Amino acid sequence: MWLLIQEFWHDMKTQKTRAFLTTFSVAWGTLSVILLLAFGEGLEHQMVNGQLNNGDRIIRVYGGTTSIVHQGLPKGRDINLRAEDADLLKRSIPEIDLVSPAYGQRVPVEFQGNSTTAGYIVGANPAFETLRRMYPVAGGRFLNVTDVEQKRRVVFLGNEIAKRLFGEQEPIGQRIDIGGYPFKVVGVMPHKFQNSMSNGPDNLRVVIPFTTFESIWPRRGVWYLAVKPRNVKQNMEVRARITEVLGSKYRFAGTDDRAVSYWDQIENEEEMRKVFKGIQIFMAVVGGMTLFIAGVGIANIMYVVVKERTREIGVKRAIGAKRRHIVAAFVMESFLVTGLGGLLGTIGALTIIGIVSLLPLSESQATEMLGTPTFSPGIALFTILVLVSIGLFAGIYPARRAARIEPVEALRYE
Length: 414
Prior knowledge:
- This protein is α+β, with helices and mostly antiparallel strands.
- Helix content is 55%, strand content 14%.
- The chain has two domains: 2-52 and 270-412, no CATH class; 65-258, no CATH class.
- It has helices spanning 2-14, 16-52, 84-92, 128-131, 145-149, 159-166, 210-216, 235-250, 265-308, 310-318, 323-358, 365-370, 377-403, 407-412; strands spanning 59-63, 96-105, 108-111, 114-117, 120-124, 154-157, 175-178, 181-188, 205-209, 224-229, 260-264.
């Protein structure tokens, strides 16, 4: 083994240009594969995270209009879901983990004469914090049960609306006016990325207790009900049970798919992951082809090496070397070239990934969407398998040709 490595190193020093170009082609291919897959995986993680930031595996339930005559009632009836339906669903369906009503209204928000308009004022319960990933920064809090029970005028702000209102001032504990009504700020949400939204991003959201919302802005029904199943794989069963429970209360047919509608973010996440899995496979194929081309180059070089070493092969065979020894020598050399190039390419890719990871993500939608490249065990395993395959491909055929050379003919070769 050591002799084979010494022989390889001697050949590298003798044919520096050829060795450099061969190793560089493998290194470049390896770097390309790893970066393609790492950036693809980072993009997938960021997009899925952006989807979850719009609702952490929740099902939104919206009231609609009946389209089927049922129990003597005409079609065309509006189904206005109410806040108490959240408690009804929680009691009736054990598969539901969390549920919150959500009211919505655009209302001017003002602090000391600095007027602005929030993306949307939302009336919700404490579960909304988890359902929408609206966690507070240090020193603040989200809405609690007491806020809801006592109809307190407290408010939780998205980070962007807080910046517009307070600038560099500390928002927590301050008082603001919402539609002319005074509210106390109890918490602020840190910036979060969303790739889908409804009535604006949560960064511009203003959340108050739903009971407070009802007392100030009475509504016939809620905007929607946010429901989180205990098991995400039971989302369709939960939807069927919701239709059954609400159908019994509001007297509409279970087959009437217009009476209530669903925005199933569990389903959306699954579809998104499938799309990105296809993108990852495509990028892996493109990267693999890049490395395959490098492997063809190594194979060509190895054929040249076999031709150059014909007399050397003849001498080895004449003094007793077996064919398997010749094959092992050339396959080992191919593996060493591939391994060295792969190592250099991997180091280069990891360096680039490390540098990019240290760069702060811009809060602009375009750059934030790209996310941070991720070097996962899956990428490492794929790269190793491809490199091993290339090493075998590039070395085995030239090695077999070398092993078939007859010693007498090889010694006569000029």
